[in-house]
Specification:
membrane; six-stranded mixed beta sheet; 3 domains; alpha+beta; 38% helix; Plant_RLK_LysM; globular; two-stranded antiparallel sheet; transmembrane; Transferase(Phosphotransferase), domain 1; protein kinase activity; Phosphorylase Kinase, domain 1
């Protein structure tokens, strides 16, 4: 028995190497989030092109309506489903359609993010299990839309994280290039599904971590591994979709109907051994994880001095809890945006494809976005972040084009303020220090205190907005990506956050000089000619160089000691070696000294 037990444990340890994903047999309507309810992120890919299968139903029986539901182009559906231009309005009820999606990884689980305009009285369970046919669990919608409890009281935008997955290394070794998310219905069996896709049954079982005795159920999903862009064999038909699937009991769909009675007799014994091995493995893994958590966790903000004590209550756990109260977006109609901007009058343009507008009694900034995918990406971030130093997203519009509606920030960008002589004179030394501090607080929040953590990737003086009270707000989230917590392993650490640190160093130079700074530009080289921190403090010649670098509109009305301090901090942020740059945690502590 001990040898057999050891063998079972080894098998359990080895199996994930071949099957990263696991089939979730829980009910679509369940309000409990079971382990494995979502597909895990790929450690080597943050996003990928993938596909889902959607079946035409009552309100979605044309390609135009399906493309609208999934924010894609009708031409893409025609191409991937081998249809002609005459087919889009001639789709049969229950016909299976391939929908291309961008599968991304905002957290531990991969998803294709969409927005659904829910009507009055529709429950999240109905949206998940009827409209989206089990491609997302009801509990996932509840987690993503905590502000909605029960039925909708009015038209509301619902965030929908559809299940998807990217191929991992073991999939690629098998020649798999796509993992298609397939919603199971009716009398589907593994054999029918395999024949429909022309994929060996064993490959489907392996991709979903299924064993010989496992069963599959309607309103759950399977991942179908394909080597090429998927093609359906329409000669192999499943039963038509149930018009009200969530209300019916779900039958068990066996993987193999030829299980012998002898095998069934041995099933309990085998399961008992496996369960015992699993419990033992869980204890071992839990101990390892607890040890690793204590040793390597760098995601907590530990204020070590009195200057930073005011941040001590903002622990990541507390902020993570608060972030679950996600923001409610307003779904604007195109007509409302035209009225708000006087039909996008050029006199109201405040940037490239950005207009000032007024809706109701508030001023807003309306930005046209190139693609629905890009708009959804920004929405998925800003509906999870609510911070005084991050611009607030008020709503969106997905009609003839994609528009995002933000709070209007009165004084424009930091670059606008520094470039305008009148505004620059109003930017006193104290205000400039406060703005630098605000930016650092916002970046620190993104790097450490959100779940998932984010890297902005586009910090510059144009993406920093200044309020009428001269406080800073971070904007421009199109290139923002999620990241893991900073870890230290064998003396190394992930360097993605140092991109933002370097950009922050350039902003400090602009705050000091008033000039627009670019890496390797003239002003940047002038700064590098100023000696290092030690020499700067000891050499009067270096101090004179620093004075000539300072913004002349301040007319020497600034603290020279503070200017030296900021110059030293900027120099540290601009180190060529990313590992030598400070973290935003260090930057924030440093800035709090002179605030």
């Amino acid at each position: 028995m001990p040898k057999f037990l050891h063998f079972c444990i080894v098998i359990l340890l080895i199996r994930p190497a071949f099957s990263q994903q696991h089939y979730d047999n829980s009910k679509c309507t369940s309000e409990i989030q079971y382990p494995g309810s979502n597909y895990l992120c790929n450690a080597h890919k943050s996003s990928c092109q993938s596909f889902i299968v959607y079946r035409a139903q009552k309100h979605y029986q044309t390609l135009s309506s399906i493309s609208s539901l999934f924010n894609t182009n009708t031409s893409h559906l025609i191409s991937y489903n081998n249809m002609s231009q005459t087919d889009p309005n001639n789709i049969q009820h229950g016909q299976e359609i391939f929908v291309p999606v961008n599968c991304s990884c905002p957290d531990r689980f991969s998803e294709a993010f969409f927005l659904y305009n829910a009507s009055i009285g529709v429950s999240l369970s109905a949206i998940a299990c009827e409209v989206f046919e089990g491609l997302v669990k009801a509990q996932s919608l509840i987690e993503e839309n905590r502000e909605f409890q029960g039925g909708m009281q009015n038209f509301s935008l619902i965030r929908v994280p559809v299940k998807c997955a990217c191929v991992d290394t073991s999939d690629a070794r098998n020649g798999t290039n796509f993992l298609v998310t397939y919603p199971i219905i009716g009398n589907d069996t593994l054999d029918i599904i395999a024949n429909k896709f022309g994929v060996p049954q064993e490959m489907i079982s392996g991709a979903n971590g299924l064993g010989n005795f496992d069963a599959i159920f309607p309103l759950t999903t399977l991942l179908i591994p394909t080597k090429d862009v998927p093609i359906l064999n329409y000669d192999v038909m499943s039963s038509p979709p149930d018009p009200n699937p969530s209300s019916r009991p779900r039958p068990e769909v066996p993987l193999n109907n030829n299980i012998s009675s002898a095998k069934l007799k041995n099933l309990k014994a085998i399961l008992g051994v496996v369960i015992f091995g699993t419990v033992l493995l869980i204890f071992i893994v839990s101990g390892i994880l607890i040890f690793a958590q204590q040793k390597f966790d760098r995601c907590r903000f530990n204020a070590s001095s009195s200057q930073t004590s005011k941040f001590s209550d903002l622990s990541p756990d507390f902020l993570n809890y608060m972030s679950k109260f996600k923001l409610t977006l307003t779904c604007y109609k195109m007509e409302e945006l035209r009225d708000a901007t006087k039909d996008f009058d050029e006199s109201l343009a405040i940037g490239s494809a950005v207009y000032k507008g007024r809706t109701g009694d508030i001023d807003v900034a309306i930005e046209q976005i190139n693609s629905a995918e890009e708009a959804n990406h920004v929405i998925s971030i800003l509906t999870k972040i609510n911070h005084i130093n991050v611009v607030k997203l008020e709503g969106c519009c997905f009609e003839s084009s994609q528009y995002l509606v933000y709070e209007f920030v009165n004084n424009g960008s930091l670059r606008d303020c520094l470039s305008n002589l009148t505004m620059a004179k109003l930017l006193t030394w104290d205000k400039r220090i406060q703005i630098a501090f605000d930016i650092a607080v916002g970046l620190h929040y993104m790097h450490y205190c959100t779940r998932p953590n984010y890297v902005h990737h586009n910090i510059n003086s144009k993406s920093i907005l200044i309020t009428e009270n001269w406080r800073a707000k971070i904007s421009g989230f199109r290139r923002t990506r999620s990241r893991s917590c900073i870890e230290e392993t064998r003396g190394t650490r992930k360097i993605d956050t140092t991109i933002d640190v370097y950009a922050f160093g350039l902003i400090l130079l602009e705050v000091l000089s008033g000039k627009q700074i670019t890496a390797n530009g003239r002003s940047f080289k002038d700064f590098l000619e100023i000696l290092g921190c030690k020499e700067l403090q000891e050499s009067s010649k270096s101090l004179e160089k620093l004075k000539t670098f300072m913004d002349p509109v301040m007319e020497k009305d600034y603290s020279l000691e503070g200017a030296v301090f900021l110059a030293c901090l900027a120099k540290a942020c601009l180190q060529e070696d990313p590992f030598e740059r400070p973290s935003m945690n260090d930057v924030l502590k440093a800035l709090s000294i002179i605030l």
